[in-house]
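queue> pop job 88
queue> type: inverse folding (structure -> sequence)
queue> payload:
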């Protein structure tokens, strides 16, 4: 198996989403990612969703393919172990990923004394190092005030920790960039990435900062419509719901043809004196367009709508619950080479994804389960130079732990 990041060694001390996601992203492309945790497990070791027996499906999901070291980092011996692990020699080592508090021995300055070219990726809450999570950042940048039913005034949050997800991917990319820079210059560095800065950057990248600054306007709530174009949800005869999207000219033509609405839309455009072939005009007149299309969906079941829209190459999707997506969507199954059915110790066998990235000419690295806490303690200590006697003493002194 050709691992695209074969040889890269990353030490991870983290919790929650962004930093663990960054480590998992690298591991799924072949990097050796060693996660260290307290003897009793990390801060998110029991985070929901959990099994009926209390095992964290969240933790298992974000730590696939890593190795695990259980160590008491509050002790001098534990700190020595982690310092040796993080700062081990070799051009592929000396990379530390964390969102833990960086102070004392774990600070960049403290660790750099042991390896001058250390690369440290520090995921922060805000740019000052203050505590922030996705569910505090999102309200701060305005999205809940633009989310929800049209005409409503209450803020609406979301279930997806979007800023965590983007930050995790950016952190992985930053590590690869810093590693490339070190190979060219021999210099390491401290990289800082704040969750709130990620959100604010995307606010600007999507034109929302400019919209507020230049136009002096606030984005209104618009339900399930798509700002600036036409996309709308419809209820079918059997109560099932679908979303249709017409961003491009082709998508708009296909939607009109599939629903038999060409003549009605042309008449509507004439009455409104509007060019509905322009996506902005379709957004402005979305309610009138929806009123024309609504009877088509109300007269057909989901199956009938699906057959018609798929045959007409319309961009559409069925609304599903998470459970329905797992049970019904062929893309969320073994038909998709990203997935494999694997056994997660302590939990059972279920569908696990590998990396969604496919490199041409390189076999996709098969997904791997998350490790048991301390599963690789013995081999990791051996790799960084501890003797069998020393390792036994560390276990006896409750400095490190391995699975029973």
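queue> result:
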């Amino acid at each position: 198996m050709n691992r695209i990041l074969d040889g890269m060694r990353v030490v991870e001390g983290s919790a929650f989403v962004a930093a663990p996601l960054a480590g998992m992203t690298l591991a799924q492309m072949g990097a050796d990612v060693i996660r260290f945790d307290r003897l009793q497990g990390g801060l998110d070791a029991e985070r929901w969703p959990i099994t009926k027996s209390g095992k964290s499906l969240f933790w298992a999901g974000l730590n696939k393919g890593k190795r695990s070291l259980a160590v008491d980092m509050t002790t001098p011996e534990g700190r020595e172990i982690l310092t040796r692990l993080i700062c081990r020699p070799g051009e592929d080592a000396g990379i530390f990923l964390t969102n833990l508090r960086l102070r004392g021995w774990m600070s960049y300055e403290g660790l750099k004394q042991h390896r001058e070219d250390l690369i440290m990726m520090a995921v922060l809450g805000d740019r000052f190092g203050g505590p922030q999570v996705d569910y505090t950042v999102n309200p701060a940048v305005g999205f809940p005030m633009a989310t929800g039913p049209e005409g409503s005034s209450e803020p609406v949050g979301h279930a997806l920790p979007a800023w965590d997800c983007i930050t995790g991917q950016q952190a992985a990319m930053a590590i690869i960039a810093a590693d490339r820079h070190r190979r060219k210059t021999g210099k390491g560095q401290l990289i800082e990435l704040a969750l709130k800065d990620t959100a604010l950057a995307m606010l600007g990248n999507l034109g929302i900062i400019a919209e507020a600054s230049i136009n002096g306007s606030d984005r209104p709530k618009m339900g399930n419509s798509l700002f600036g174009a036409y996309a709308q949800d419809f209820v079918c005869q059997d109560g099932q719901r679908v979303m249709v999207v017409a961003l491009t000219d082709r998508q708009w033509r296909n939607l009109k043809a599939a629903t038999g609405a060409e003549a009605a839309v042309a008449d509507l455009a004439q009455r409104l004196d509007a060019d509905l072939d322009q996506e902005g005009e379709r957004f402005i007149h979305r309610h009138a367009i929806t009123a024309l299309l609504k009877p088509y969906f109300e007269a057909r079941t989901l199956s009938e709508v699906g057959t018609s829209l798929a045959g007409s190459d319309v961009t559409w999707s069925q609304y599903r619950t998470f459970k329905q997506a797992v049970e019904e969507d062929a893309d969320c199954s073994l038909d998709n080479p990203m997935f494999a059915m694997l056994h997660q110790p302590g939990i059972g066998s279920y569908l696990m994804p590998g990396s969604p990235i496919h490199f041409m000419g390189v076999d996709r690295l098969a997904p791997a389960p998350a490790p048991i806490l301390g599963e690789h303690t013995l081999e990791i200590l051996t790799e960084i130079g501890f003797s069998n006697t020393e390792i036994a003493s560390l276990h006896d002194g409750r400095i490190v732990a391995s699975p029973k």
